Amino acid sequence: MELLQDGVGIGMQQNEVNKIWHKALDLLEGELSEICLNTWIKPMEPLDLGQGVFTLSVPNDFHKTFVDQYVPLIRNTLKVATSRNIDIKIVIGHPVVPEVRVEPSLQVEDGLPAINKSRLNQQYTFEAFVVGSGNRFAHAACVAVAEKQGGRNFNPLFLYGGSGLGKTHLMHAIGNFVAKKTPERKILYVQCEQFVNEFIYAIKENKYDDFRSKYRQTDLLLIDDIQFIEGKEQMQIEFFHTFNTLYESGKNIVMTCDKPPQSLISLEERLRTRFSCGLTVDIQPPDYETRVAILKRRAQINNATIPDDVFNYIATNIASNIRELEGAFNTVLCYSLLAGTITLEVAREALKDIIQPMAGRKVSSAVITDVVARYYRITVEDIKSNRRNKEIARPRQLAMYLCRFLLNMTFPQIGNDFGNRDHTTVMHACNKITEEINKQGKIVSDIEEIKKRIAE
């Protein structure tokens, strides 16, 4: 076995790693309570000791959150057990799959600053994504893009939607799928803000050729939160040429954004048209059934048995954001460890500071307008503006309708709150929505979901 200067071996045999870990467990018995040792420490699996790092595996994210607080203690215990300074690395699951080959978002070799070496998150896969009515088309589109690399089909792919709805998950899933299927492809994932920072650095340090080479020689460019390019004239010019180079050479581009291309008002027209020339897909907030499915998936991952009324309570009260939904679930799970059980009462107590402050808010036309705007991923200013395109007009009509039938406001009152509009405009809006409701269109489910959010 090859040795490093500190005597810690490279590629140490598994039985030797196990012996060291068992010795450490014996020492930890005197430092931790029996319940803590059996619940958090002993379930960890020793994987490797190399390069001065002892790698331990935990079954899930929830377990890792609790184990992290014991890392200093484990490090000191291993130092006693081996008489060497050893660092600790905690990983989730057993790393049987080799690391995805993906270009770091910043490399010293590229002549650019090594601020952050972004990698694809291998937990973000298509299999791990919960599909529901609000994201079914987006999921299908991303699978299609991942399977048909190298052509102009669905290129570029433009995913847009509110925060915490799964855009980044799907983007990483594309990268992971392509990397597994065709590992020779060069994949580059970067957040737009970081892309902008690199461009600024390249200009400052005269590393422009390095910057161009890095972004124009990739096979698949994944760029997150492209809205940060708005208002940056020089950056837009550079991205325009990068986009053209990749597109004309048959390379694939995937972008995420918080709004559709046509709503990027301060973006150059030539970029807006290019963003729209492929496949533009929105991700809707999850409906109730999808939210329950997400919670049940989280429970399965964490090996937790949870009553249906707890799922119902969380899914009903946390409606607009998957990230917040999972955060509420983790809060309940953590709280249940202290309570010793998971019941509806425990869930209410755990989430009282998250859910209750919203429950008592007074419903007004401003609240309704805000909820409708967030649901359709536009702004309140859009609703009150004079813009008449369908993406704005329909939410505006729906907001007026809800003000009329939830608050019993008069037509003139509603018109006044919506930019001093004539009462006949409000009447037309209410009649239009009523007609759609009578036809039992998608508007019915939209209204029910918006009502739930208004009542939160």
Into which percentage range does the β-strand content fall? 5-15%
Radius of gyration: 26 Å
Shape: globular
| Main β-sheet description | 5 strands, parallel
The tally of strands reads: 8
The low-pLDDT segments are 1-11, 95-118
Helix content percent band: 40-55%
- What order do the helices and strands follow? HHEEHHEHEHEHHEHEHEHHHHHHHHHHH
Mean pLDDT: 81
Structural class: alpha/beta
Spatial order of the strands in the main sheet?
5-6-7-4-8
Number of helices: 21
Distance between the termini: 62 Å
Supply the key terms.
disordered N terminus; alpha/beta; 21 helices; 5-stranded parallel sheet
Task: Note the topology.
Layout: H1 14-28, H2 34-41, E1 45-50, E2 53-58, H3 61-67, H4 71-82, E3 87-92, H5 136-147, E4 157-161, H6 167-181, E5 187-191, H7 192-204, H8 208-216, E6 220-224, H9 233-248, E7 252-257, H10 269-275, E8 279-283, H11 288-301, H12 308-317, H13 322-339, H14 344-350, H15 352-359, H16 365-375, H17 380-384, H18 390-407, H19 411-417, H20 423-438, H21 443-455
Parallel strand pairs: 2-3, 4-7, 4-8, 5-6, 6-7
Antiparallel strand pairs: 1-2
Helix pairs in contact: 1-4, 5-6, 7-8, 11-12, 11-13, 14-15, 16-18, 18-20, 19-20
